[in-house]
Amino acid sequence: MRSARFLFLLPVLFLPFSSCAGPASRESKPDPEKAALLSLQEQGRLEEALRRVTQDLEKRGEDPGLWALKGKICYEIATRQEAAGLGGGYFEAAQALEKALSLGSREAWPRILLARILLKNGRPKEALPLAEKAASLAATPKEKAQAYLEAGEAANGLLAELVRNKASKAAIGEAAKKALDFLRKSLDLDPDDAQAWIYLANTYAWEGLQAREIQVLQRALARLPKNEALHKYFQDRLIQLGRQEEAVGFLARMVREDPSNAVAWWYLGRARTALAESLREKAQDEAALEAYDQAVRAWEEAARLKPAFTSSSNQSIAMALVGKGWLLYQKGLFRDARKALVRAWKAWPGVFDKKDRFGVSYITAMEAIGKALLGGSRGFLSPGSGAPPSPLDPEKSLRLAVEHFRDLIARHKDRKQYLGWWYNNLGLALRDLGSLLAGRSPKGGPPPKEAMKCWRESYQAYSKAVEIFPEDPRILNDCALILVYHLGEKLDHAEKLFRKAIRLGTASLKEKEEAGTLTEEERKFLEEAVGDAWQNLGLLYQKYKKDPEKALAFYRKAVAYYPYTRRAAARAARRLESLKGKTVPAAEKKAEKKKAPAWYPFFSGSPVPQEEPPLEKAKALMEKAAKASPGEAKGLYADAAYILGKLARAKGDAPTLLLLAKAYRGLAEAEKRRTRPNGITIQGNLDEAVRTLKKVLKLDESNMDALVLLVTLELERGAVEGAAGAARKIADLLEKKNSAIPPEKYFNAAAMAGHALYFDYAKKKAAGTPPAAGEDALAQKLLGEVLNEGAKNKGTVPGVPSPQVAAADLANLLLWKGDKKGAVRALGQWLSAAPADPQTLTALLGAARAGAASEAISVLDPLVKARPRDPLLLWYQGAVYCEAGDQARRVGNWDEARKDYLASIQASRSAARLRTTYAASAQQYIVRALSGLGYVARARKDPEKAAEWFLKALAENPALKDTRDALMETPARGILYVTDDLRSTNQPEKVLKAVMIYKKALEYVPDESTWGNNMGLFARDLGTFFWGRGKKDEAKKLFELSLWGYEKALAVEPNNPRLLNDTALILVYHLKRDLDRAEKLLKRAIREGTAQMKALGTKDPGKKQFLDEAVGDAWQNLGKLALLRKDLDGAEKAYKESLKHYSPNHRAEVRRDLKLLARIRAAAKKKAEGEGGGEGGGK
What we know:
Blueprint: H1 32-42, H2 46-59, H3 64-83, H4 91-102, H5 109-120, H6 124-137, H7 141-164, H8 169-189, H9 194-207, H10 210-223, H11 228-240, H12 244-257, H13 262-281, H14 285-305, H15 310-330, H16 334-347, H17 362-375, E1 381-382, E2 385-386, H18 394-411, H19 416-438, H20 449-468, H21 473-487, H22 491-515, H23 520-543, H24 548-559, H25 568-578, H26 586-595, H27 615-627, H28 630-651, H29 654-672, H30 679-699, H31 704-717, H32 720-736, H33 743-767, H34 775-792, H35 804-816, H36 820-833, H37 838-866, H38 871-890, H39 894-914, H40 919-939, H41 943-956, H42 971-983, H43 988-1004, H44 1009-1028, H45 1032-1052, H46 1057-1071, H47 1075-1096, H48 1101-1124, H49 1128-1138, H50 1148-1177
Helix pairs in contact: 1-2, 1-3, 2-3, 3-4, 4-5, 5-6, 5-7, 6-7, 7-8, 7-9, 8-9, 9-10, 9-11, 10-11, 11-13, 12-13, 13-14, 13-15, 14-15, 15-16, 15-17, 16-17, 17-18, 18-19, 19-20, 19-21, 20-21, 21-22, 21-23, 22-23, 23-24, 24-25, 27-28, 27-29, 28-29, 29-30, 30-31, 31-32, 31-33, 32-33, ...
């Protein structure tokens, strides 16, 4: 009936204990009562055994053997609870064992067990003499081996403290020798004890003898090749040391020597996955993909050899396939990525939203693929990188998108929170596919049947999305848009949808404005949705209802909403106003339509070209477009491209083609600036621009402007090799014509070429492929020239709009080459000329994060000293010092870490004080630094001081409780660690401090249910402990605190059966009040648990078992409540119901109470029968 959710983290070099030795009967005569208790213990009936031994101690309180038995039973209960993730609570076991020793116990095993508990709580100095004494008292070789094992671990703990405190080499050597002596004696007695081998390896690790450590583990596995604990420990150590390939090689040899070793196959899969993840971090994608495939094959073989491994193998296979799917997606191999992800889901449906260590899950990968297929990388961010543009042509991409979203909808019909978006995206894919197909039909002809079919299916998909999200104005608008723009039917329904979108959007705007919660982003989104609906209504009335007056009114309303006069509605309104009272002959309309370019928008802001205009007209249009809004710019660039295309076809000269390429680029840029850009349109225009530039270079291969623009566009398209090829040509030209090229052109070309060459070098290095010979030197030369020019001219370089990018590129190039100091020196050189340049400071922070934090500090400190009130410099100083603190902490340099964190806090506070707009971002580093100080204190074995720092971090800003540092730790997790550290001491005053830490933390963050649950559990256990020792007032206060914690958790998770049950339990068993409320909570726990089990069906058997146990506990507690009310029938009914749930074998108390009820009923019946007989006999 316990429930705890917190972390048990032992140091890397310590593992859980081996099983406890049984009591050796050397000092006492056979005792039937003790024999009965041992029998109950062996049967697993621990609660019943604990009740019996407690009763016996009331009569024989001075018997050391009984106290020792109680300690052993309590220890096993705590161990079982800890294994189930429910919390240990070893202090009761420790108290009982200490009592046994104080009464003169001369047996070895209580000392072994107590030493084990002390070691578990990080107290090796106290554990060592106990274990040594146990070795001298041991009755059997097995017991003596266990005593030496505990002594060896205790000696290892003392050795670890010496290493951490940087003791002398002689002191460390002496401590290691002592630990080795104990562990070798243990192995001499029991050479098959895996734990002893692990501790022996620990000793060499602490001594710094890594090679000896690995040799010991290899010898151990040669002797015990199927021991899972050894495999896990050995593999974890190799992975921790960055030796994943060695882990793979070792296990590959093992399975070659014994192909039937299922354990080795399973861990081979794990090692190959670790290797894949390491390769993935280095961007060696091909090798990572191969490693994932090999991991899957290894796990399949493990499951085949040992069916018990099937479940864990399938889960591991699923996660490996998610990693593979994400890599394939990033490479643009979307079909292969989908196959891998579908296979992952089939292996283990629970993989749906489980994230790997890169933050990627099955569903994030599937949605990323869908977004990329719909429109390249626009508008979507995902863990690791943005979505890559689709390598397929637009039609193939959209067809695959349709297949993709249909497949998701069919496979995951139960995922209602996702279905609406999938239907929406399916509608979008079908709509765009229909438009693409329609654009290929002859001018003036009807759309092809397939296009009409796409639009009809698009409407059906949007209609489904509307059913799921009936209040979303954007989806309502898109659904109606299909009817008006493409199908031309159900126009009354379309009008209703538009008007509903307007009503909902307007109401939402008003509500948020009045509440003062409307952000600028929300305002733009809602205004755009409302304005679009008015605009589309205008088109409906103009095109179909032939009512220009109403159409004009609707257009004017649309213009009142973002983006205001930049809307197509503004141009449409002007056109309608200009046509008032005029009639346009049909022949003129037809001629106008015929002469317009193919991409001409429905509402054009420019006059239709009637004859070929001069080159100057196209230039003027492009100049105007560069200053216009996105919607207007698109029309102007389209007109310019139309003119230039005709001129290019007629003349075919390089200058005209170069202008045409710039017009295509302008079209792509205008589309990007729109609120809802179309990725396919962007990609198509960029492709056209690149093709046109290549024509220019065929005519004039030394055209520097064309080469620089080609580099820019190739990089934008993701064609890095194409950009690098053009960059090499630029470098050759710069070398040949150095003095003849004007400075502004020279440095602009050098910056772009250097950027492209660096990018190509970095990409190849990341992929593990050799870069072109001399590419890094060439990039370094070009970027260095730009940097030197900027340093001479106080941060300005002729012709280079953002020269600081060159400094960042050069720094990144040097980082790739392993030259951290050179990288920071390059950035420092630029900052000496432009000390307040945000981009370079950002690059410096990036270098700090890459491991050069101390070097970055050496650059920043002098700058801050020269400009002590510059908030920007102070902000970056705070950020870099925080990164430096994390890096010092990673290597165990606690003094340096503490100094860096304090400096970070000081600088960040100064930045926030000097510029209030920096306050929010500076606060994130303050919280990280305060949390880092907490982790430093914890590493120094001072959990109370650590708790102070973590609570300060929460007080700074409770919303930042989950802010991660570079070691992926958070203040919230720190609270869990320190409270567990305090509780594991088994000292009541420390456990009480843990309870009060949770209480304080919950005052800052009341919605952290895990803290409330743990506080409830800790306070309840401590209260029970005090109650058992007669301290009833203290116990009652703790029970009240326990109730407070559980109620906090329950407020956050009101439908959690376990929390409902535990809250009621406090009222029933401990406070014995508010029993009506307790009854309601227990009945609700039963309802919720039963409903949740039903909803799970056959999925997630582990969770289902957990819920089933919670329901059984609630019935059991209802039975107890009924007994308190003397309702024997109700108690019996509830108890019998509890035995129908997991696990009836562990409900000893229920069976005991049922027997008690039976005895009460039998006694009552006998009494009734006796009374009846007496009356009949006249007595």
